Amino acid sequence: MKCLACGSGALVEGALTDGSGTNVFFNPGDIPMLKKMLGIGNRGIRAYACVHCQNLQFAVEFKENDLEKYQQFEGQQPGVLERINSEPEKLEE
Ligand SMILES: [Zn+2]
């Protein structure tokens, strides 16, 4: 992984904690409140700090069944050429 801000590869991996050592999690917005209270749906967060520019970036530890659940966002996208070619043709006047 590279720093998104400066492109450096000098990243230190760590975890987000609340200061007393308790990990902070990512909670998807579509999880019902009761499940949130029970900690169901919590996904780990990996944090990467850039030594070079001090940027901080994150990654979520999704689980395998999450990938299936959210596959709706990864539908087939038309290529650029395909999109250009499908532009409605202008009518000749
Ligand atoms: Zn950086």
What's the quick description here?
This protein has helices at 33-37, 64-69, 80-85, and strands at residues 11-15, 25-26, 43-50, 56-60. The chain is α+β, with helices and mostly antiparallel strands and 93 residues long.
Keywords:
single chain; 93 residues; alpha+beta; four-stranded antiparallel beta sheet; binds zinc ion
Describe this structure in words.
The protein has 93 residues and is of the alpha+beta class. It has a domain of 61 residues. The protein is 18% helix and 22% strand. The chain is flat and about 70 Å long. The model has no long low-confidence stretch (mean pLDDT 84). Zinc ion binds next to loops.
**Beginning-to-end CA distance, first to last residue:** 54 Å
Low-confidence stretches: none
Mean pLDDT: 84
Helix count from the secondary structure assignment: 3
Bound molecules: zinc ion
Q: Helices and strands: which structural class?
A: alpha+beta
How large is the share of residues in beta strands? 15-25%
Q: Calculate Rg over CA atoms.
A: 20 Å
| Secondary structure tally: strands | 4
Helix content: 10-25%
Order of helices and strands: EEHEEHH
The major beta sheet can be summarized as:
4 strands, antiparallel
Shape: flat
Detail the topology: elements first, then pairings.
Layout: E1 11-15, E2 25-26, H1 33-37, E3 43-50, E4 56-60, H2 64-69, H3 80-85
Antiparallel strand pairs: 1-3, 2-3, 3-4
Zinc ion (ZN) binds at residues 3, 5-6, 8, 50, 52-53, 55.
